[in-house]
Amino acid sequence: MTEQAIARAFGRAARSYDEHATVQISVARSLLGMLPDDFSAERAIDLGCGTASMARQLCTRLPHCHWLGVDVSQQMLDEAHQRGRLHDRYQPVCADATALPLADGSQDLLFSSFALQWVDSAAVCMEMNRVLRADGLLLMALPVAGTLRELKESWEQVDQQAHVNPLLAAPQWLQQLEQHRLACIDAQTVTVTEHYPSLTAIGRMLKLTGAHHVTGRQSAGLLSPRRRRALEQAYEMKREGKGLPLTWQVLFVVARKLA
Ligand SMILES: C[S@@+](CC[C@H](N)C(=O)[O-])C[C@H]1O[C@@H](n2cnc3c(N)ncnc32)[C@H](O)[C@@H]1O
């Protein structure tokens, strides 16, 4: 998937993102909770910041730090501006995570939540290594293989096409980090399952958070009535007391750049 396609999908979701991104925003908060108490920083990046929903918490947690909110989608950054989240200590930069317009070793901390799952892992690890100073810290959380499992399995009952793009598995990310001299201090994979009243509600949430493009070339909304019914029937078999389950496998990592 190209950066332009990602930027377009998130651009379309910019307005609705915050109101529907429950999992994403709670993951970002948990990730910030993993910052070691004694770590201080003067320069940091919120990589793939989206609407900068974490700007206030990041600035409060590190009161002397200057943040760059980096995102490939200008519309997401415009939404951050509309929501009054940009200021002299949290400034926007529209750029791709694999080609940051920043000097080598210029950053003390990289924070990235729910943003790097569609990026070339080797390229982004190389870039993160480049801009971090020696001993600088990376805090990263992202969905990995096993995410949207129920949707994938339901599609498999309808046809043999890939409708949910594969994500890297946690060990593959950990290997990339290690190869790029980003030494893991902490790594945990957490399972988060949400429940929805219907397949329509799931499709809506994915669309309004910009994540629908991961569901591949044919979304539920574009299906013929017959195939949509088949998908619904397959998903209904998974219904639980609280509704239709949708699972995210989220990898949380704290890593230090080796000197
Ligand atoms: C799901 S949102 C997460 C936003 C925010 N970090 C949060 O937790 O709410 C993912 C964001 O990552 C951005 N993104 C995806 N790929 C990117 C890339 N290669 N470079 C920079 N930003 C990227 C998207 O444009 C989108 O705004």
Briefly note the structural class of the backbone. alpha/beta
Q: Report the sheet with the most strands, covering strand number, pairing sense and barrel closure.
A: 7 strands, mixed
* CATH class division: Alpha Beta
User: Helical region count?
Assistant: 10
Give the % helix: 25-40%
Radius of gyration: 19 Å
User: Can you write the helix and strand succession as a string?
Assistant: HHHEHEHEEHEHHEHHE
Q: What fold name stands as the CATH topology?
A: Rossmann fold
Bound molecules: S-adenosylmethionine
Going by CATH, the homologous superfamily would be: Vaccinia Virus protein VP39
- Low-pLDDT regions: none
Proportion in β-strands: 15-25%
Task: Present the secondary structure layout.
Elements: H1 3-13, H2 17-20, H3 22-32, E1 43-47, H4 55-61, E2 66-71, H5 74-82, E3 90-94, E4 107-113, H6 121-131, E5 132-143, H7 149-158, H8 170-179, E6 182-196, H9 199-208, H10 225-236, E7 244-257
Parallel strand pairs: 1-2, 1-4, 2-3, 4-5
Antiparallel strand pairs: 5-7, 6-7
What does this structure look like?
This protein is of the alpha/beta class and 259 residues long. It has one domain (3-257): Rossmann fold. Helices cover 37% and strands 25% of the residues. It contains ten helices and seven strands. The protein has a seven-stranded mixed β-sheet, sandwiched between helices. α4 (55-61) links the parallel β1 (43-47) and β2 (66-71). α7 crosses α10. The longest helix is centred in the C-terminal third of the chain and has 12 residues, at 225-236. It is globular and about 55 Å long. The mean pLDDT is 93. Bound molecules: S-adenosylmethionine. The site of S-adenosylmethionine has 24 residues, from α1, α3 and β2.
